[in-house]
Amino acid sequence: MTWKKILLDGDTAGGGIQDFYYYRKYGTDIPEGWYTAPCVATTFTTGSPTANLMRAIPFICPKTITLDRISVNVTTGATGKARLGIYKAGTNINPVDLILDAGEVDTAVLGTKTITINQTLEGNNLYWLTYVSNAVIAVRCFSVASLISILGYSEIGTTPWYAVATSWTYQSPPTSLPNPFGSIQGLVAAPIPIIRVRLSA
């Protein structure tokens, strides 16, 4: 049985084996659950992603869900803006179609920056959560060793890839994120910002 078949079986009336990403918590009941890229983290780190380089992290969606929040955590306040979004993967796993331009957050003050959204994601699909800023801003990032690479490894097998990136010049006043995603500028090892989403009740 293939991995793809497991995901499809998990979302049918007949039941089947369900991938663990199938089980996600809705709403604000304690403990409130937020979700992000595949990882086994117990602690996170900080990093300062390059400005005007949109980074995308994978978000596995085995069943249809609706999101009501998307956020990023600023660890050191810095004058600037950051913009969050969601793309859907194309036929070769990379992000292609813009699903949501969530808008921008002010990064002048540290803390969690949350945007209210109302976005349905279709089951049995791969999506990409994106972050881009107009300044070098310190944000909460993944500890690279804790991430699960669904993108494979470098040719010689020594470097796992966890995210992708494309150049996009941040504009003010803000305009919509590019659609389609754009040319992949590279596979990103670090720093990789943590972009979280919450499922609506």
Count the DSSP helices.
Answer: 1
The strand count comes to 11
Average pLDDT, to the nearest integer?
86
Distance from first to last alpha carbon = 33 Å
Radius of gyration: 17 Å
Helicity, as a percent range: under 10%
Shape: globular
- The appropriate CATH architecture is Sandwich
In CATH terms, what is the fold-level topology? Jelly Rolls
How many strands, which pairing sense, and closed or not: the largest β-sheet? 6 strands, antiparallel
Which stretches are low in confidence, meaning pLDDT under 50 for 5 or more residues running? 1-14
Return the string of H and E elements.
Answer: HEEEEEEEEEEE
Number of domains: 1
CATH class: Mainly Beta
Structural class by SSE content? mainly beta
Which strand order does the major sheet show?
5-4-7-2-9-10
β-strand percent reads 35-45%
Task: Describe what this molecule looks like in 3D.
The chain has 201 residues and is mainly beta. It has a single domain (24-199), classed as Sandwich (Jelly Rolls). 3% of the residues lie in helices and 40% in strands. The protein contains 1 helix and 11 strands. It has one helix at residues 3-9; strands at residues 45-47, 53-61, 65-76, 81-89, 95-106, 111-121, 125-133, 138-141, 163-167, 186-188, 196-199. Strands 5-4-7-2-9-10 form a 6-stranded antiparallel sheet, with no helix packed on it.
